[in-house]
Design a protein that fits this description.
globular; four-stranded antiparallel sheet; five-stranded mixed sheet; binds iron/sulfur cluster; Alpha-Beta Plaits; 2 domains; alpha+beta; 221 residues; 32% helix; 9 strands; 7 helices; Sulfite Reductase Hemoprotein, domain 1; 21% strand
């Protein structure tokens, strides 16, 4: 029985024969040339179905194993980190770039975070979400690390996840005034997680320690 092929970003499908692959599209923000290329490559390899994923990617479904190397070569794009123990995705809402409700620039901050963290190896999988206001369209409170725009800056949540045991994230920092402060806090959380010696999802660690103890441990206060 076939299995996922981590190094090729290939996820075996229900037929146990073919694979889904999904190029990395930071924030789900792309252009017509990239979309045309994905469609052209899909046609070339007989890929009949594309799926828009919850991680803001476009998955090509039903790819044959023997085509994986050449299809990636033809796409000339990096795989999205859809599998493995790493930062899987950074979900970004439209924020002040496009959304009339936005109060902070989630696109600019989210793309910075994506550049630093996408696919970074960690003890378990991690998802991040960046929303431009408290409406939370990037499902921020269900992410291991979530950042939400407020009129005063950014609020940072930790320990959220979906999955079989869903958990709502808790407030780690109420007001980070700017992007640099958010990046510094996120770096502290990720560094702590890397060195924690635990292979649990971040939310389980927060749950066991309690948010106050977790915050003190991360910030060293
Ligand atoms: S979270 Fe706020 S800024 Fe982002 S898309 Fe939703 S309403 Fe707009």
């Amino acid at each position: 029985m076939k299995k996922d092929i981590l190094e090729k970003g290939a996820i075996v499908q229900r037929d146990r024969e073919t694979y889904a692959i999904a190029p990395h599209i930071p924030g789900g923000i792309t252009d017509t040339a990239t979309l045309r290329k994905i469609c052209d490559v899909a046609d070339r390899y007989g890929v009949k179905e594309l799926k828009l994923t919850s991680a803001q990617r476009i998955a090509l479904m039903g790819v044959k194993e023997e085509d994986l190397d050449t299809i990636w070569s033809d796409l000339d794009q990096q795989p999205g980190a859809a599998i493995g123990l790493c930062v899987r995705s950074v979900k970004i809402c439209p924020g002040t770039t496009w959304c009339k409700r936005g109060v902070q620039d989630s696109v600019a901050l989210g793309l910075k975070i994506d550049t630093i963290y996408h696919a970074m190896k960690l003890p378990n999988k991690m998802k991040m979400g960046i929303s431009g206001c408290m409406v939370n369209c990037a499902e921020t409170l269900l992410k291991d690390i979530g950042v939400v725009g407020t009129p005063k800056g950014w609020r940072i949540y930790v320990g959220g996840n979906a999955g079989a045991r869903p958990r709502i994230g808790e407030v780690f920092t109420d007001t980070a005034p700017d992007d640099d402060e958010v990046l510094a806090v996120v770096a502290r959380i990720v560094d702590y997680y890397k060195g924690s010696g635990s292979e649990q999802r971040l939310g389980r660690i927060v749950e066991q320690m309690g948010i106050e103890t977790f915050r003190q441990a991360v910030l060293g206060t």
